[in-house]
Amino acid sequence: MAKRLTRRWYATDAETLAIKLLGCTLVRVLDDATRLSGRIVETEAYIGAEDRASHAFGGRRTPRNESMYAVPGTAYVYFTYGMHHCFNVVCGKRDEPVAVLIRALEPIEGLAHMRTHRGENIRDEGLCSGPARLCQALRIHRSLDRVDLTRSSSLFLEAGDADAASIAEVGRGPRIGLGEVGRWRNAPLRWWIKANPHVSR
DNA sequence: CGGCCGATCAGCT
DNA sequence: GCTGATCGGCCGA
Fold this sequence. Notes:
Blueprint (H helix, E strand, L loop, with lengths): L6 H4 L3 H8 L3 E5 L5 E12 L28 E6 L3 E7 L8 E11 L1 H8 L5 H4 L3 H8 L16 E4 L3 H6 L2 E4 L16 E4 L8
Antiparallel strand pairs: 1-2, 1-6, 2-5, 2-8, 3-4, 4-5, 7-8
Helix pairs in contact: 3-5
This protein binds a DNA duplex (13 and 13 nucleotides) through strand 3, strand 4 and helix 5.
């Protein structure tokens, strides 16, 4: 039976969590009890204040990124480019700005609903293949920022089936969409399930 | 205040 | 491969 991930499970560094999250299921329950879910197939680690690509670089702490400093298992949802949301899982320890960006899902439940959110003619592979796409598909927005993923009934994660993560080969490479951030630009902090058609690239 | 920029995406060339 | 959309957040004056 699907098991919700615990606080302890999240309490690790971002690189470790980025790999552990592959194969786990992200679940979103709408106000009308509609259940939407997908298997995590691509992640990126944002490893702390020293990471120049992170919103928390240099220890920057503002109302926008405050949830990055919360306890492990907290959601960090931010709005960007004037129109998109992205969803992160906070890890590490309280007051350490460490998180994993969820970049792509393989949709499992609620594909018809996802199409009403994303577009009727989108194929399965395009529904959740990108950090903003999956937020649009699952209706994840700023009101879910700071939610406790170990307690919330609207947004949470469940353990993957043991073999999914172990059988699949995992790819590793640079993160996507970064500006001029020096050595952090090419740091291999993105992971994905190889040969999975639902990854963002 | 004003100005710049972004952990993106869709649509076009 | 390139570009416009679109606007909240942040920083400097």
